Protein 1
Amino acid sequence: MSVAWQFYISTVLVYLGVDVIACWGLNLQFGVAGLINFAFIIFQAAGAYTAAVLTLGPAIPAAKGGFQQYVGGAHWPFPLPILAAGVVGGLLALLVGSFGIRRLRSDYEAMVMLVVSLIATSVVTNQVGLVNGPNGLALVPKPLASIVSLSPIGYQWLFVGITAGVCVCVYWLVHIVTSSPLGRTLRAVRDNEHAAAALGKNVTGLRMIAFVLGGVIAGISGAILVEFISAWSPGSWLYPETFVYFTAVIVGGLGNNLGVMVGALLVPVVFLEATRFIPQFGPPGFIDALQWIVVGVLALVFLWFWPRGVIPERRRRFPPAAEGEEAQPLMPAKAGR
Amino acid sequence: MSETGALLTVTDLHRQFGGVHAVNGASFHVPPGRITGLIGPNGAGKSTALNVIAGALKPTAGKISYRDQDITGLPSYKVARRGIIRTFQISSEFAKLTVLENLLVAAPGQRGEALWQAALGKRYWRPQERAMVQRARQLLARFDMSAKEDEYAGNLSGGQKRLLELMRGLMADPALLLLDEPMAGVNPSLARRIERHLLDLSGAGLTMLMIEHELAVVERLCDPVIVMAQGRVISQGTMAEVRADREVLDAYLIG
């Protein structure tokens, strides 16, 4: 394989890993807990900015030739910036969740999230001292690059390995949630929150768990992405990006971690990469605009004809009782409670 | 227990929606081990009263005490954790969960429902879950629903959803079951089956408060009976007693 192809494939693999991680996070919120988080991308962005700032080191003032201004710069060694990105994503989710997901009907909740996303873009763009405004952050050092001595292509594959490792950790996290009684209760809250509350489930607390875990995972995905591409600006996380992830989760199969992985492969990677190979035609920028049309049409087609996605949510069956297994006695009334 | 021996005591309960007094000073109590009927014409405030007791609505004024403890204004999940479980008038199944999963969700004190417990892995919560599965299967067998165990609850018929609603309530191990028209919209033979189940449960000592429109059913199942009209309790006693009450006749006729 030529070096150029290796570069291309390893780059696509890292993007795929980032998208898979993000889609798992969104699936936990939307597919499992039913939270319509139209601000999903800002949690990825928060993670990316955190990791960038904690890798870049202290900002150099403009008077001394610094070309980018930001707060809280530090030189943390790998993998601390990635972990910190997860923490910041989770804290941001706790903050947004504290007003966004309590006591709101899901359609209003979706509106609040969209507005939060727009506000966040506007604040980051205009508060230039925060994370360098519209120009964003650049020249973020690559993790381990100063320690390992690898050829550029060798480093590419090392990064693919790091991404894969993080994917495994995140999968473990989403799997223990979705396969446990917690996952079942979250799905119950998604299907009917009033009935769940009437059975003793703390609906707000449960939704907050899903929201914060999704925020942590989104933050981690942003950190991987920024460490790989070395730059991050408001253009990377405009609100339409959220809809790419929503489309991926819907196409793949809501509530199914494996399906969501397929969705992340199909939508942000296969369909959006495929448009690169279409010969340029029409007015300038036509192909780029076509990407958004493809995403919109995909979402519509699946919602109409295939709403459960490529790999639908798994039907949980329970094995028959083992021999000698005693059932708990059935007592309709506990006299002495 | 209070001096009256009641499990649940509602005192001067008010609930307003804007200018409408849905419940306007209702007081009654629910004795243990029986099925208490709550009847009255449409708009009498029965469902609102039930929603306030269950914590789904906050009362405007008044007091609700349960086992001599004040539970007024508690959120519904806290009311439920004390053993007061309600069913809904409109089926409230978890549509994309199977019938068995619907029941498992209701089981109280589940291991693995908190995040840290889930992180401890299957070995921590699986044994208890298996016991719960067996318990749920007993319920399914008792209600003749074993064949539907793996069916998505959303695919059940209207009558089967009513049965699921009741089974799910029982799975939660209630001390007081609040039933909002448990036989609404089911065919007569299934209604009779539900009736028998309620009688069996009552015989086993379960306390119930039931809203019901069919007076013949109330007569067969409920003692005492509470009659509400225009947000107030206008009569209570046995069905024979309230039938004789002039005010009750007026309420139903004028209603």
Protein 2
Amino acid sequence: MYDRPALEELLAAVGIFLEKQIGPLVKDDPKLYYQTLIAYNLLKIAERELVWSDKHIHTQWERLNNLLEIDMPLPTNALEAREALERRNEQLCERIRTGEHDEQWPRTVLFAHLLATTREQLEVANPKFLQVISQERATRELSTGILGGG
Amino acid sequence: MTPETIKSRLTPYLTEASGAPATVTSVQPLAGGASRDMWLVEATLNDKAEKLVLRRDLPTTMLEQALTREQEFKLMQAADESGVKVAKPRYLCTDTSVLDAPFFLMNYVEGISIGRKVVQLPELETAREKLPEQMAQQLAKIHQIDTIKHRLGFLPVPRLAHNPVQEAIQQGRDALKKLNIDHPAFEFALRWAEQHAPKSERTTFVHGDFRIGNLIVNEQGLQAVADWEFGHMGDPHEELGYCCMRDWRFGMGKRRVGGVGDREPFLSAYERYSGTRVDRKTVDYWEFLGNLRWAIICMSQANRHLSGREPNVELASLGRRSAEMQFEMLKLIEQMGI
């Protein structure tokens, strides 16, 4: 549809520019250097969003179908799909406010959905954060496991 | 404002304020927060060489709950007189014709105040061992500041018929409403917060932003508690939970107290210094609430950029950092019981 560079290649080009050319140039100005790192990091977020967003909108939609017990198809048009998801999230907020998820069972399902959604956000925004947390948990389980065995 | 302008305008001001001959010899920028600018000022006051820090308002304000420079100055005086380790406040200037905005000067305290460095620098290893105990001691003193004796009536208090917990929850709701955000994770967390609110038994002065990055630390340990602009009347547990939040641990996730220590020794030290009992579950709750609030503040900060008022890449990035605090808040709910 468009000539190359493709979208992900455009982002990568800007990333290389920030990293190789701007970074060394502003190294002695702590504030500018920090902001350049942030800008670079935002590009990386955009790159990951390109990879993940299609999968995440489907999984989120599926979970909402399950949670709200309505089998609604996700609109095929990307823009409409996003709008529909936003509307469903508004409805979900309303349901939470009015106490429809207060009972144990719907609350557990809701919580699992929220946690999964937040994980998906982090896969895009900061996958390293998720890695660090799971490593932490692994070492804790290992150490309690050894203690428990002894 | 350039260092030269500050230098030339500060010399006559300091002469007048100190009542003796004053010369400003150098002005250098210090790394400050997103909302204040800070300068290291070297001056000769009455033939004595002094190092001072200038803290000035920026044209944009960060959070509505923040104190003015004048209030912060008075608060720091009260903290100083109450025996809290704090940079001694020296001169307050509310006349905006001097530096275009209110400012004050305080003594410069030698040390490191960048949280990541405090947690990671090898030369601060011994200091880190002392820090949790020193933090507990300072917090106990801070919570004992007599706000009536020191005439701190300007400090924010919970609104009518609200205890500190209810006030914090309401502030979260107000902020989301202002942003016009429908966000299921926040909605759930706020409802959970209301349904699991602990009793709030004691209202005291709290620093409001007591975390590792707001301490000045050298090899001997804690030298001063900085950034008093979020001081308010609250629940002491609020502050004990706040300084344990993951975001202030700088990669040392298992050391719950600011990445430098375990929680239990810290809380028992606080009990010893304050002579009060600490409810561990209430501290857990406030750590959760701290994450919820910080997650919402991130969205508000991003909105400063998104609204077009203050285009800034750093503010924009906070919108996507919010998820880290959301995750932590959900994990804490899970630990306490969904």
